[in-house]
Amino acid sequence: MDLSLVRLFFGICLIAAMIVAISAGVDSNPAKQVLILASYHPGLAWEDDIISEIRLHFAMFMPSTIVSCEYMDTKRVAPDETRLSKLKALYLEKYGKKHLDLIIASDTDAFDFLLVNRDEVFPGTPVVFCGVVYFDDKMLQGKRGFTGVVEKYDIADTISLMLRLHPGTQHIAIVNDMTATGQAAAKVLEDTIPLYRENVTFEILGNLSIDELKEKVSFLSNDSLILLLTFIVLSITSLTYRARIWESTFVRKKDFQPSHRSYP
Fold first, then answer.
1. pLDDT of the residue at 207
2. Which residue from 50, 57, 67, 113 is spatially nearest to 87, judged by alpha carbons?
3. Structural domain count, the chain
4. 105 and 225 fall within a common domain
5. Is the pLDDT of residue 35 over 60?
6. 185 with 133: CB under 8 angstroms?
7. What's the rounded Cα separation, in Å, for the pair 180 and 258?
8. Which of 10, 84, 158, 263 is the right S-S partner for 53, CB 3.0 to 4.6 Å?
């Protein structure tokens, strides 16, 4: 994501955080305690940008704030019931007797965790969320002290633009994975694809290795387009956004199908 967009995004989040803190009636002690609950892990560029911008904005506008961070690591360790239970136990042990003025939930897994566990693990602590892709107001029914900024995949407008730019298109291959973000995008796709089925056919390329993806793409016809959504590679040594691999491997080739993204 462009750094200017990240800064704007977290400027808005910080304003929301201030409003939540004020409305929650926190005391006048200048050293507020803020916890960032990050869905992913340090070293992931997206997560690093988020954390650094949050810290920067607090340093600029609320410099006495003490900001700490917990990483859920859900892109490298599947957030199944066993894993989430262990995280819950860990956070209860670490924060059960500690006062927090605010929690910032970064991305969908952290948001989902707090929806279920906030009242037990962090009772009464207001939550500001960001990076939640497939949001519904019903998620907050019966919940107090939650606010945030919602991301939206504008898939419909992206497909419309693709078809205007390439009027002879007969087929669109959609590259996506099954991470929490990818699953959220898939829900948006379910509502979007039927709007265009009379004009083009669709194919979902999901959870493929780079070699498998290369093979699939090599058979696409000249009247095909590619829509890239969430796409990451997990290996023993690192986790890399497939978008970068895609860009260096395919998009720069002059004879390759036009590719588009619905995300900055």
1. 76
2. 113
3. 2
4. no
5. yes
6. yes
7. 27
8. 10
- Say yes or no: 31 and 44 in one domain: yes
231-258: pLDDT as tens digits: 655 443 444 444 444 444 454 343 445 5
Residues with Cβ within 8 Å of 39's Cβ and at least 6 positions away in sequence, in order, are 47, 72, 74, 75, 105, 106, 107, 108, 109, 110, 131, 180
63 and 126 housed in the same domain: yes
Residues 187 and 62 in one domain: no
pTM for the whole structure: 0.71
Q: Residue for token digits 């895609």? A: 246
Give strand pairing partners of 205: 175
Mean pLDDT of 59-77: 91
* CA–centroid distance for 28 within its chain: 34
What CATH number is attached to the domain comprising 210?
3.40.50
* Residue 14 shares a structural domain with residue 136: yes
Name the residue among 174, 131, 139, 182 with its Cα closest to residue 156: 174
Domain of 233 in residue numbering reads as 155-261
Residue 181 amino acid letter: T
Question: Is 52:59 a contact under the CB 8 Å cutoff?
Answer: no
Q: What is the pLDDT of residues 149-183, one digit of tens each?
A: 887 778 899 999 999 999 999 999 998 887 777 78
* CATH code of residue 34: 3.40.50.2300
How far is the C-alpha of 119 from the C-alpha of 143, rounded, in Å? Answer: 9
Quote the pLDDT of residue 239: 44
DSSP state at residue 137: G
